[in-house]
Amino acid sequence: MLRPYEPLLSIVPEGWGVIGALGGTAVLMLAGGAVLAPAMIAAALMPAAARFWADPRSGIACKPRGVLAPLDGTVIHRRECHDPILGREAIRIVVRTRFWGPYCLRAPIAGDVMPLPPGVHAPGVSRIRAEDGQDLLIRVTRGSLLGSRPVMVGVGERVGQGRRCGLRRLAREIELIVPAGWRVDAQLGQRVRSGQTLLATMLRKS
Fold first, then answer.
1. Residue 62 pLDDT grade (very low, low, confident, very high; cuts 50, 70, 90)
2. Rounded to an integer, what distance in angstroms lies between the CA atom of residue 192 and that of residue 206?
3. To which H or E segment does residue 80 belong?
4. Residues 184-202 pLDDT 10s
5. Which of 13, 102, 139, 179 is 20 to 30 Å from 49 at the Cα level?
6. What stretch of H or E contains 49?
7. Is 4 left (phi over 0), alpha (psi -120 to 50) or beta?
């Protein structure tokens, strides 16, 4: 049985339902003697759907101390802030998603998926701890992930940098909260690519 975040033939499980529905619609239209044009439109949409729900493996960057963009989009915010979830000074980076970008959410850093602190209720937030013990938060600020955490990997499991760790679903904006002192490399208005563009660089603890 496939786990929720494992693709089948490089297409995420949610995508197969849409692709199958389009293919079935085209077949039923042709079998029912419908006008050829609608059936051709349904069939033509199948490659577009396959691309949208694809999990491409090529082009993924490897930056050991880098923070990669988790999805395609545009940087619309980068500013120091107070992180109420972990009670620390931090930097907030917000990426507005590109609708036709890949459906997959990629891990910005390598690390372990951690639970939120006891007593903290923060829906739509995931926490990843790097090897040096520093934490990065991923939060949905606009849109919906249908009630799930952005990172679908189970708490206590490890994610690899740039590897598929979840789905962006209806999320319109994704927020990364990193410790204060990390260097922010992304510029406001910059277009970023999932698993490729460097957003920030982790600096070692002093």
1. confident
2. 30
3. strand 73-83
4. 999 999 999 988 999 999 9
5. 139
6. helix 36-52
7. alpha
Write b or e for each residue in 118-154: b if 16 or more Cβ atoms lie within 10 A of its Cβ, otherwise e: eeeeeebbbbbebeeebbbbbbbeeeebeebbbbbbe
Closest CA to 47 of 66, 13, 19: 19
**8 Å CB contact between 167 and 103:** yes
* Tokens at 126, concatenated: 């995931």
Q: 178, exposed or middle or buried, with CB in 10 Å at 0-12, 13-18, 19+?
A: buried
Q: How many CB atoms lie within 10 A of CB 9?
A: 8
What is the pTM for the complete model shown?
0.77
Render pLDDT for 134-188 as a digit per residue (tens, 0 to 9): 999 999 887 766 667 788 888 999 999 988 888 877 788 999 999 998 999 999 9
Gap between the Cα atoms of 183 and 155, Å rounded: 27
